[in-house]
Amino acid sequence: MSFHELFAKYSGEVTAFAHFLCGDRALAEDLCQETFVRAWTARGEIHQRTVKAYLLTITRNLFRDHLRRHRRTEELPTVAASDLPALQRITQAEELAGVMQAMRKWDPSDRQALLWFARDELSIDEIASRLGCSSAAAKQRIYRARKKLNLLRKS
């Protein structure tokens, strides 16, 4: 497969994955471009059956590097429904802000695995494929994230 075909086939998924990680479309596009530059300049041959996992792993690692370099705070998204009383909306927003702040400190792959499992209802094998790890490792990441989430709920 040529580089052009590789980019045409996987750039949408890589960009979507990067956007999921960072929540910023412009940064996601930069991460996607850097992912393909790294794949193109990498030594050795890319195996067809693992190319997607390989690209998503590069993207995840680039995002981790970005986080290390740019420790920044993110805006709290609007979550309150208009029909809730103001005090209840404020309380929920404060609770959500606390959970989001705590989750930002988690390993991104643990956070991703939990979200894919709980929100997107992906199977363990699908999560493992996206993360580029074994099914056992994916289960472990979900377990760690659930454990951390339960600790947040108790505090």
Question: What features would you describe in this structure?
Answer:
The protein is mainly alpha-helical. It folds into two domains: 3-69, no CATH class; 86-154, Winged helix-like DNA-binding domain superfamily/Winged helix DNA-binding domain (Arc Repressor Mutant, subunit A). 74% of the residues lie in helices and 0% in strands. The chain has seven helices and no strands. It has helices spanning 3-22, 25-41, 51-69, 86-104, 108-118, 124-131, 135-154. α5 packs antiparallel against α6 (124-131). It starts with a helix and ends with a helix. 20% of the residues are buried. The mean pLDDT is 80.
Largest sheet: none
Low-confidence stretches: none
- What is the number of E strands? 0
Structural class: mainly alpha
Gyration radius over CA: 18 Å
| Mean pLDDT reading | 80
Q: H/E element string?
A: HHHHHHH
